[in-house]
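[stage:ingest] chain + small molecule (BIS(adenosine)-5'-pentaphosphate)
[stage:ingest] validated
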Amino acid sequence: MSERSAGTLNLIFLGPPGAGKGTQSRMVEEKYSIPQISTGDLMRKEISSGSSFGEEINSYIKLGQLVPDKIVISMLLHRLDHDDCKKGYILDGFPRTVEQAKSFELALAENGSFLSGVIAITVADEVLALRLGDRRVCKKCSTTYHLFHNKPKKDGLCDNCGTPLSRRRDDEPDVIANRIEVYHQQTAPLIDFYQNRNNLYLVDGNKKIDVIFQQICVIIDKLT
Ligand code: AP5
Ligand code: MG
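[stage:predict] done
[stage:export] tokens:
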């Protein structure tokens, strides 16, 4: 990891699949000019490259299982070494296990760095499946849309780059159900983990996208 000075904003966005981590963290990226880093996006990029490493990663993602900690931690730490992370970053979907959280804590300590806060977005399970089923994504720039709640300006095309929108392969009903189950088993314990460190900020993700964003900005403005 590159060295970071005081005044940096290092955030984690935690939440179940479909909670709106990607949607909100990208809005935060734009407003606060720090990069949004999604471990899911990093891994989908590797899969699209057609490498054998990507194939290995895909064997977990397509089933809705977590990719092994060792692989994810190494990809994430490598990404955090880039210069654009010096002023801070927003981690979207990392950590996802207590093991990942502990490794990350160690890496931060070794680097003399710190976490500014963990924003956990909560949404009822029944809402998550509806959101993911009607999600559409841009494979080129990873911008996310929803057929009803967050439509692109032109039907079926990305607002940013005009690329035709598609469905994520893990947004099939049986895989969605597995991802939600995996979240409860392996990721939800992180709520207590960060609450015990007085680092957790809960946000009600059942509201409208803009309302949630305003609440998140209030939290971030207190952290800076
Ligand atoms: P990842 O890509 O991180 O997927 P996820 O956690 O399952 O979360 P999603 O991206 O599906 O949901 P989101 O919270 O970002 O919601 P979004 O903003 O898109 O991970 C994919 C896979 O990679 C994992 O299953 C795992 O295999 C692997 N992986 C990734 N990280 C890993 C790690 N650290 N360790 C191990 N394995 C890892 O919103 C969803 C939809 O709802 C969109 O259509 C959006 O427009 C809409 N929406 C958002 N907010 C609202 C709202 N308030 N009201 C109405 N609609 C809304
Ligand atoms: Mg996402």
